[in-house]
């Protein structure tokens, strides 16, 4: 249970807000790279942290992310012509390059006085890991490119999707760092989903519904360990790293690819749930890719032509209470999303009752608020440096007297190109 | 015409409002009994007086009406699993019984300290007359079960339906106690509807469009008498009882079953229009039941799978101005609802002009406000005792010097299992 | 760029607002005449300047435009029965004539005291030029009927349509007085549209994208001249008259009919775009009429049964970026509307950057504010007198030392029944 003030502080990310300030310190996923498939393709509407923007790829392949509206009379540049290294407003032909600089203002001709002064708000972009990332903060504070592992493996080892979630980012992210719900909500899917089934760890998950949570700080964020009883007098640890602002990595299951998420605020009532499968060492198989594209695992099927899940709140997520699924909703992603959206657009956290298995959530909230205040005061912020982002989830059996803090470091801080430590 | 303040006081029924306090003193219809057809069936979303709730019937058949949201992290219990005498949140398995008591909190095991302290808001329910009723007020003030006649006749003598009305409850209820509009709006239906036609009273209704209204207090509410000229130098009286908070009973027509309504606020801009036909003495015939189920009389046809009328404001109520219907809208229920919804979600009563035929409406408003204030001050409130609810509508011809107050008592306060007094 | 205060003052037109006061000084188009095709036809909902109204044509053909809601209990008179010289509310039979006077109040009989006192707000109407106009201002200030040319030519010389625009009126009107965008947005349509193509002026339009704007006051409003280079060392002038409050006339192209618009606020976020083609001297040809009815030129095709364009914001205006159209949107009207709606329901003019080609817009805003303040102070207001409205658009080539102010008067202030001065 937190105060209404803290809940507001944590969930509002628009320009000028406390948490909005923190989000603007990091590279954020903005679009799938294939949404801008080639030079001079159609521009795309992007809304991030409450700001309406337009993304485009210019004739040279350079990426631009600009204020949505033309500086002249406010027309949406979504209607713009993407041609000859710039986006041209179709109303009077004003044209902008990827930095937002006006490069043509036809009514005053080539050397007019006004053109040079016109510059739209623009944010730098980079393409990495199949994703176009943007940085919306002060230019002088721009960090190095994302070093998170999934974005840096060879393309064949990764699959990235995104879906619209009709809720604030925080309740989505809180689901991502809460591995205790797996024993209930996903209990049926653990046994049947092609990207989840067949792990010894799943058996432990289903058997022990009273995990102990232990949360460990690290420079990038938190390592959230969930401990369950295993066989032979040992503990089964699942370690979920959370890297600021909103990266999470799901602990592995047997030889399956790892799963990861990033939760990115669109506005205070919507977010993008980015969902990634990757394997640090091997290419994904055709069968795995087919399952991911087909909406299995942490991915979904869509309303055609959109990133809106086919199962959504307008159709009660196609719930079928007679199915084997615990909640009647099919698919791991929509099992989570359906419940998170049901909390309301912004969950009222003044009415919640947290328990010890929510320890990761409580720590993460505190860390977010602390980091946001630090950022506001010009102090250091966690998770900005590449080395702080190099972390991986891990599932491990350990003797009862060995804590994951010391004894899972080889799995959590593993070198690239190595197999996950998994059960 | 009333003040904006009085209009607000009369129409707002959320928690903490004046009128909300009054509504919370009575048993209110919450669902049709068949919406929860059997033990462990799917839970149902219910919104009453602005409060989001979940109704369920447990393994023993007991009824529960709880706060919609799990106490843990705010998930809607509409997604709950109804099993083994409780509703289980699918996120982390917290489980509640029909009183809202948490009976299982898996992460802390059987004897944890927290479980016992977790109790959701819950409202007592009872099943009576094909309806699940609830009481949302202070437990110590809970009244005896509803004694209104239609809820207490044998099942074969009753048909109950409900429909969504997209307006505040008050303008719906005011239609229910206003029998003067029958001569206009329902003039065609009086002649053709199988549940209305063939009464001598209908002829009086159509012939005399200048009824005199006389309103008489009784302990349950008001008896609203509408007097029209009959044959043989007599008066034709139609007596509509209004029982607090929002029960109305339509005066009978020849041998047809009686009609009754309850208007129950969902929130300030929507209400349930409960519509009941019943006969105090005989079973309804197959033909009558078929007509009721087919949307005749005071019932409607629905958008499949909902309680939304097929004729609704999004399709202009399928108006056909060339039909015989006075307004072009078909069916008595939707003739009323279309006009009441057209007033706006909450009618602006500062602009109305009441006339003597609105005397019942004016009295009822005053009585509602008086009762609400009395309730607030801990004083007695009308309509709470069973004997105050035992009243019936009546249609009667009387000599001009006999007033219905004294001379229709045998019809209005009739013993159960007797035929209505009707014309 | 204007202040937020001026933007609000210019764009709000509800009752009691500054600009609302100005609009209420003029005759405004309310409906197409054929929306009320004959006596006693169905009434029509009309919303103007934020006021909900009902229009009807009585048994004698007289036009009424009344407050939407019955004075009795607030029912929408859209459900009214239009019969025997009045609109009768179907709830209790109250009936109103075209002046809003209650002419029947059945419950009190023929000579009751109340009926005479009941009078709904009503606005005078007149039918002219295929349009039903209304005047919503103080009765004592009612001006003479509209003298704008298109409304006064013989019917065969005119075609009138209207479409819903989902934006404030001002950004729509500002498009209408801005002939500089033609060189961009409509560049393809100029060459192919049957109602635009084939004019020498079009060539000048496409060749010279740096027009000089010169704005001249006249008693009805402004004459906005756009000057482009022509052949033979001459200038090509296009002169767009703007007559208060929101009449515009498009400069002619060769022998095509003239085009005109009126932009009428429905509420602050919607307006009617009235679109008229007319020829002062000859009847429109069958081919021209077919093109207009087919949505060519400044007209559109509709969602059937509505005045909503088939291309609208819910379907991204059926944009096809591979088409020859400059913005990918088809049709001159929707090319304009798509961009104007994309600015948001009310454009934020504090963020715009006007240039010299926006001189007409800047002058018109100032004139609107000045006129509105004059009206508020009881001073004279431009555009009220018939002679102030008798103006026509003109396209003309002039020697460089001849200004349109003096040398296009024969085209701009032409006598009726004469050919336009055109290029």
Explain what this protein looks like in three dimensions.
Three copies of one chain form a homotrimer. By secondary structure, chain A is α+β, with helices and mostly antiparallel strands. Helix content of chain A is 21%, strand content 25%. The first copy, chain A, has helices spanning 4-11, 18-23, 149-152, 169-176, 187-192, 200-207, 286-293, 332-342, 359-376, 386-389, 404-407, 409-412, and strands at residues 27-32, 44-48, 51-57, 63-67, 81-82, 87-88, 95-96, 102-104, 125-128, 131-135, 158-165, 212-218, 221-229, 234-243, 247-250, 258-267, 270-278, 394-399. The relative contact order of chain A is 0.16. Chains in contact: A-B, A-C, B-C.
Category from helices, strands and their pairing of chain A: alpha+beta
Strand content of chain A: 15-25%
- Largest interface: pair, residues per side: A-C, 22 and 34 residues
- The helix fraction of chain A, in percent, is 10-25%
Question: Strand-and-helix sequence of chain A, N→C?
Answer: HHEEEEEEEEEEHEHHHEEEEEEHHHHEHH
Q: Whole-number average pLDDT of chain A?
A: 97
Overall body shape of chain A:
globular
* Main beta-sheet strand count, sense and barrel state of chain A: 8 strands, antiparallel
Radius of gyration over C-alpha positions of chain A, nearest whole angstrom: 22 Å
Number of strands of chain A: 18
Task: Tally the helices of chain A.
Answer: 12
Distance between the termini of chain A: 34 Å
Oligomer: homotrimer
Which consecutive residue ranges of chain A, at least 5 long each, have pLDDT under 50?
A: none
